[in-house]
């Protein structure tokens, strides 16, 4: 049976949250009474359960298995959402992680006695330390451009994308320079009447193999930002776009002939200050996501730079709180490492009182 007063509460049961749960259990925290994991989704999988059905396993950008359990062999053409969600479900069962769902966290507040209250749609929990692993999927970013509300066609975000079929015969403008933008552009271009790719900056295509040293350099750049209290860019966003055989084929087809982003949106398309105009039926915003941290607003953790100042996974303004899957730990391998690091620091914080349950 769950206790409503726990030593550690984890918000989110994606890669980062499950990693934290594994390390909490492994280091002596008792499931359900010593720690609990609250998840807003109806089932396992985290953000992966919401990925578009046409994202196949062999097109996933760098997935790393969770600690203590190998990723099962699977056909590469199976939907990533299906395979990863099943893996996360098996992981929760194997390690008997106390995931409670669907539970939506509304606000986290500080109590006079030093504990934190976590208010949800299923009541309130009290905790001595908090691991926030809410990721970004629930916070799609829609940039503002003049005239956006006047567009008569359809607008959707990466988070809304379910496959290319609904774009058949349409004129589609794809906005964004990241991996997802290129993947969706490639799919849509096979059925659309016309695609136009626009990005704020020229795409950074990288030839050759992406090695560990490149990954470390990318993580260091993001870590530098969060230590200074600036909002993090994604790790993937600073690595560039690897020129895979698929991208080379798209380039040969002319699909990657990019335009600078437009200046305004009209009822029938997009327009530039120099007079250029592209007619459009659909605008697909592949413009990324922001960290889902609104429930932490009562704690006033944000720095003047707009981000949360971090030291590793620990929030500098409040040592009871750790953010994982945030900033440098936003990749799957980073989330694993961050889960271990957060639990190590939490154990040190709770000593010498040690684990109460």
Helix-strand makeup class: alpha/beta
Count of helical regions: 6
* Terminal Cα span: 13 Å
Work out the helicity level: 10-25%
What do the pLDDT scores average to?
A: 89
State the shape.
Answer: globular
Q: Describe the biggest sheet?
A: 9 strands, mixed
The helix/strand series, from N terminus to C terminus, equals EHEHEEEEEEHEEHEHEEEEEEEEH
In percent, how much strand structure appears in the residues? 15-25%
Rg for CA atoms: 22 Å
Count of individual beta strands: 19
> Uncertain regions: pLDDT < 50 for 5+ in a row?
none
Write structural notes for this entry.
The protein has 357 residues and is an alpha/beta fold. It has helices spanning 15-26, 80-94, 179-188, 212-227, 245-252, 332-350, and strands spanning 5-11, 35-38, 99-100, 105-110, 116-120, 123-132, 154-157, 171-175, 194-199, 205-206, 241-242, 258-260, 264-266, 269-271, 277-279, 282-285, 310-311, 314-315, 318-323. Strands 1, 2, 3, 4, 5, 6, 17, 18 and 19 form a nine-stranded mixed sheet that branches. It has a five-stranded parallel sheet with strand order 7-16-8-9-12, covered by helices on one side.
Give a short overview.
Helix content is 22%, strand content 22%. It is of the alpha/beta class and 357 residues long.
List keywords for this structure.
9-stranded mixed beta sheet; about 350 residues; single chain; alpha/beta; 5-stranded parallel beta sheet
């Amino acid at each position: 049976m769950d206790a409503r007063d726990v030593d550690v509460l984890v918000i989110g049961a994606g890669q980062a949250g499950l990693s934290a749960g594994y390390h909490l259990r492994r280091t002596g925290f008792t499931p359900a009474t010593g720690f609990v994991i609250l998840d807003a989704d109806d089932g396992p999988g985290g953000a992966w359960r919401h990925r578009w059905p046409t994202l196949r396993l062999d097109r996933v950008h760098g997935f790393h298995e969770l600690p203590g359990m190998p990723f099962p062999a699977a056909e590469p053409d199976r939907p990533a959402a299906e395979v990863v969600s099943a893996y996360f479900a098996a992981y929760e069962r194997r390690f008997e992680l106390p995931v409670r769902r669907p539970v939506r966290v509304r606000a986290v507040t500080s109590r006079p006695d030093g504990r934190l209250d976590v208010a949800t749609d299923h009541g309130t929990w009290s905790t001595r330390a908090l691991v926030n692993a809410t990721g970004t999927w629930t916070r799609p970013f829609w940039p503002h451009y003049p005239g956006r509300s006047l567009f008569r066609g359809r607008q959707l975000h990466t988070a809304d994308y379910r496959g290319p079929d609904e774009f058949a015969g349409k004129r589609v403008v794809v906005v964004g320079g990241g991996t997802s933008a290129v993947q969706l552009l490639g799919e849509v271009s096979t059925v659309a009447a016309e695609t136009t790719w626009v990005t704020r900056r020229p795409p950074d295509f990288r030839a050759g193999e992406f090695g560990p040293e490149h990954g470390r350099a990318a993580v260091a750049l993001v870590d530098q930002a969060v230590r200074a209290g600036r909002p993090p860019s994604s790790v993937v966003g600073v690595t560039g776009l690897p020129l895979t055989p698929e991208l080379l084929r798209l380039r040969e087809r002319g699909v990657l002939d990019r335009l600078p982003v437009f200046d305004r949106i009209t009822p029938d398309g997009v327009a530039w200050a120099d007079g250029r105009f592209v007619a459009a039926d659909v605008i697909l915003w592949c413009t990324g996501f922001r960290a889902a941290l609104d429930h932490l607003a009562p704690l006033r953790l944000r720095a003047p730079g707009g981000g949360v100042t971090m030291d590793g996974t620990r929030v500098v303004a409040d040592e009871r709180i750790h953010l994982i899957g945030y900033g440098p730990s936003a990749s799957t391998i980073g989330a694993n490492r961050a889960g271990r690091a957060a639990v190590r620091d939490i154990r040190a914080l709770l000593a010498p009182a040690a684990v109460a349950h």
